[in-house]
Inverse folding.
């Protein structure tokens, strides 16, 4: 496959599993209008990938779009060490044509806060008025943006350039995949107790393996014998939202959140509002989302070498 084709496949998989559904088209139309309304001298600064890719945290970071890819080194986190690993593997006879990261680097990391707007739409679908959802998330999105500003985003990208190794990241598209996968699972199985959710997660190979690694599913709010109520999955939207969300979720009838990870402030806010919390596991969840993408790439004939935390499970 060409690098451009891989990029398009990843973006399209993200769109297919996007919680916004048909409303996603409106997001792209708004970006097109934003671009068209710019002065000619300002258009050169506009990231035109946004016209077809609604995920600012998913980009080709280095490499020619027409370059041919046969072997991919894929990891959860890719920085200088992983790029050097790719170079070393190539030296030893296994040519790496692309390094694929889940977590964003470079300009994709700088744009991470932009995908958090997806959380507003999720809250809206759960019954929170859109003006309230936007108001809750506005300060948190700004906080994340300010937190990203001082970072040295391009370290790994610069290494890829020096060694001439194509580099790409696939963040929200993979997170959308795991979100859809787990939502369908819980809808089909309709777990009654928190313990039932834990049992379902243990049947998924990535989460089972994570148990042996000391990072398996945990109940951090509630007990195994507590009833779930209405279950929501919190696996996408860039990074953690606002702790003020939980009051609105409780009012909307949410009983249990199944997420990748949760900070202490958020856990306490969920507890205060009587919402159960199950942490499925960060890297295991990321692995599940990436595996669903990597399976598609293997179907296209690519050789996948997992590294940097990916618990590789094939479903084909």
């Amino acid at each position: 496959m060409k690098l451009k084709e891989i990029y398009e496949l990843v973006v399209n998989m993200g769109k297919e599993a996007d919680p916004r559904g048909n409303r996603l088209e409106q997001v792209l139309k708004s970006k097109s209008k934003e671009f068209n309304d710019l002065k000619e001298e300002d258009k050169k600064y506009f990231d035109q990938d946004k016209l077809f890719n609604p995920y600012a945290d998913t980009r080709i970071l280095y490499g020619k779009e027409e370059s041919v890819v046969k072997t991919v080194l894929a990891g959860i986190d890719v920085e200088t060490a992983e790029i050097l690993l790719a170079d070393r593997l190539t030296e030893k006879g296994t040519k790496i044509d692309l390094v694929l990261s889940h977590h964003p680097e470079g300009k994709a990391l700088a744009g991470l806060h932009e995908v958090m707007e997806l959380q507003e739409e999720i809250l809206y679908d759960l019954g929170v008025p859109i003006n309230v959802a936007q108001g809750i998330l506005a300060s948190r999105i700004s906080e994340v943006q300010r937190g990203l500003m001082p970072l040295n985003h391009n370290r790994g990208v610069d290494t890829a350039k020096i060694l001439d190794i194509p580099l790409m990241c696939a963040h929200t598209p993979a997170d959308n995949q795991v979100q859809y996968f787990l939502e369908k699972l819980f809808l089909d199985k309709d777990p009654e107790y928190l313990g039932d959710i834990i049992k379902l997660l243990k049947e998924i190979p990535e989460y089972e393996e994570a148990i042996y690694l000391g990072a398996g599913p945990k109940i951090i709010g509630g007990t195994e014998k507590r009833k779930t109520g209405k279950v929501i999955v919190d696996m996408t939207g860039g990074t953690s939202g606002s702790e003020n969300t939980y009051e609105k979720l409780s009012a909307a009838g949410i009983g249990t959140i199944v997420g990748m990870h949760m900070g202490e402030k958020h856990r306490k806010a969920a507890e205060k509002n009587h919402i159960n919390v199950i942490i499925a596991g960060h890297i295991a969840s990321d692995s599940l989302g990436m595996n669903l993408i990597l399976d598609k790439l293997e179907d296209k004939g690519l050789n996948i070498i997992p590294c940097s935390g990916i618990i590789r499970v094939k479903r084909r």
Notes: Strands lie at 59-62, 71-75, 98-101, 167-169, 218-221, 230-234, 254-259, 276-279, 303-307. Residues 71 and 303 are 5 Å apart (CA to CA).
